[in-house]
Amino acid sequence: MTDLLDPRTAADPTPTPSSGRPPTTGRARLGRFLRRRPGLVVSILVIVFVLVSAVFPALFAPGDPTLAVPRQRSLPPGPGHWFGTDYLGRDVWTRVVHGTSLSLQATLIAVAVALVVGGLIGLLAGFVGGWVDEVLMRVVDVLLAIPPILLALALIAALGFGTTNVAIAVGVASVAQFARVMRAETMRIRGTVYVEAARAVGTRWWVTLGRHVLPNAAGPVLVLAVLEFGLAILAVSSLSFLGYGAPPPAPEWGSLVSEGRNYLATAWWMCAMPGLTIAATVLSVNRVSKALDGEWGRDR
Amino acid sequence: MIYLLRRLGFAALVLWASYTVSFAVLYLLADPVATLVARASDGTAITTAELDALRARYGLDQPVPVQYLERLGAALRGDLGTSFVNGQPVGRTIAEALPPTLQIATAGLVLAVVFGAGVALTATYTRSRWLAQVLMGLPSLAVSLPVFWVGLMLVQLFSFQLGWLPAVGARGPAALILPAVTLALPTGALIAQVLVKSMSTALTEPYVTTARAKGVGPLAVHLRHALGNAAIPALTVLGYVTGNLLAGTVVVETVFTRPGLGRTTVEAVADQDVPLVQGVVLFAALVFVLVNLAVDLIYPLLDPRVTQAVPA
C-alpha cells in the first residue's frame, strides 16, 4: 500500500539503458513489472472496476438507484447495504455505482476538451513558431494566472448548469497545461535529426506533422492526460458538490456527497462512502499515471 | 531597474489579458440579458421595450467593442460595474466579502507552510527509510482527496463525534481551525512536494559536503546551509499557492457555511451575476500578479544572480 502513495511522480523521464539483464519478451516484462508493484495492480483493478460500472452499472448494483424504501431509511453500512442507505432509504452503493457513469462521462469530456484544444494550441505554437508562438503562449500564461476553478466557475456562469457544461468548463480551465507540454514536445521534435531529414527529402509539412511530430510528442501529453483525468474527477465532483451539475434525483459522485451533508451528524456514511470512492479512484489514476511516466521506461 | 520594469510590464499584461478573457467568456459566450430577463420576469411576459431598457441600463445595448473599451476604462478607474442581482457596485461587494476570507486564507497559508515545510524537512532529515517513505507519500495522498469531503469528514469527527470544535459559522477563533486545516491540506502538500525535491537537490551540492567536512552538525547543515538555497524554488510557487488558497475558499466556505469571497462567488455563479463573477476573476488575477511581483522583488535579495542574468 505504501507503494501506492509513493510521491516521486515526476521522476526523470529519460529511460536508462538496460542493466545487464538478458532481454525479456513483452509479456514476461509486464508480468515482472506488475508483480513488484502490488499497489499498481490494485490501482488498475480499481480503474477497471470504475470503467465497467460506468458502462454496465447493473453488473455490480442490480438495484434501482432511485428506489426509496422508507422502512430502510438511514441504515449504517452492513450486509445487504455495503455503503448503508440514505435519508430516503435508497441504497448508497447502488447510487454510487450508477453515479459513476455521469461522473466519468463528465471527466472524459473534460480531459478530451483539454487534450484536443490544448494539444492543438501547443502544436500550432511549437510547429509554426515566431509571432504565432509568442501570442499563443502569452494567452496560455494568462490562463495559468487565473486559478482553474475560478475560470471554470466563470464559464459555468456563462454557459449555465448541467453535467456537460461543468465538464466543458473543467476542460477549458486546464487547456493551458496541455498547450505548454505539447508546445515543448513539438519544439523538441522539430529540432531532431529525423525531422530535418524528412524536410531534406521534401516531405510535405502536414506529413511531417502527422507522421513524425505527433506520434513522438504523444507520450508526455498522454501521461499528462492520465494525470489530468484524476484532477478532472476532483474538479468535476467539486463543482457538482457546489450544485452546478446534474439536477438532484440523478446520482453523481459530487452531488451524492452534498446530499449526505445535511445528515452528517447522524449518518456519516452518506457523505463518507461516495467521497471515499472519489478518493480511491483519483489515487488509482495518479498511481497509474506515475507508472506510465518513467517507471515503465526505467524498469527494463 | 530593467528587471523591475519587465516584471511590471508582464503584470500589467496579465491583468489586461485576464480582463479580456473574462470579458469574452462572460459577455460574448452567452447573452447576459437572457439571465437578466430570467430574474426580472416574475411570471409576467417581458416586452421588447422593457428588454431594451434593461440592456440600456447595464450598457449592454452598445456594440461589443464599445462595451469592451468602456468597461475596461471603468475597470482601470476601479469601477468594476454593478451587480445584476443586488445592484451594488461589484468593488464594494468584493471588499465586504473579503475580510472573513482573508482570515481563513491567512490561517490556511500559515498552516500550509508549517505542514509542508515540516513534512519536507523531516522526510529529508530522517535516517529512517520507512519514515521518509511514509512522509513523502503524504502529499500525493493529500492532493488526491476531494477538499469538500475532507472538510465534511473533519466536521463529522471533530464537531459531531468529539464535540471539540464548532461545525459551521465564523464566530470566534475556534471556528477558524477546521476551515483553515481543510484549506491548508492541498496547499501544504504542494509546498511539501516542491520543497522535498529542492531539498534533495540541495543536499547533494558541494557546499553541503564542505559544511559537513568543516564539522557542522547535521541539523545546522540541514537548516542553515541546505534550506536557505532550497527555499528559493518553493518561493516561486507562492503566486500559484495563493491562487490555490483563494480558489480553495470557494469550496471550504461552502462546506463550513462561512461568509466570504468564496461563498459570494458560488452565489454569483448560481445567479449568473456576470459583473460580479468577472470582478472575482479579476481580483484573483490581481492577487496572483501582486504576489508574483512581491516574489520577484524578494528573489534578487535571496539570489543576486537573478538580476544579473536577466539583461543578458
Q: Would you mind describing this structure in some detail?
A:
The complex is a heterodimer of chains A (300) and B (312). With 300 residues, chain A is mostly helical. Chain A has helices at residues 26-35, 38-55, 92-128, 130-145, 148-159, 163-173, 175-190, 193-200, 205-241, 253-260, 269-298. The two termini of chain A are 23 Å apart. In chain A, α2 (38-55) packs across α3, α4 (130-145) runs antiparallel to α7 (175-190) and α9 (205-241) runs antiparallel to α11. Chain A contains eleven helices and no strands. With 312 residues, chain B is mainly α. Chain B is built from 14 helices and no strands. Chain B has helices spanning 2-28, 32-40, 48-57, 64-76, 90-125, 129-142, 147-161, 174-203, 206-214, 218-236, 238-255, 261-270, 274-302, 305-309. The model of chain B has no long low-confidence stretch (mean pLDDT 79). The chains are: A mainly alpha (300), B mainly alpha (312). Chains A and B meet through α4, α5, α9, α10 and α11 of A and α1, α6, α7, α11 and α12 of B.
The CA-CA distance between the termini of chain B, in Å, is: 14 Å
Question: Could you state the order of secondary-structure elements of chain B as H and E?
Answer: HHHHHHHHHHHHHH
Order of helices and strands of chain A: HHHHHHHHHHH
β-strand number of chain B: 0
| Strand proportion of chain A | under 5%
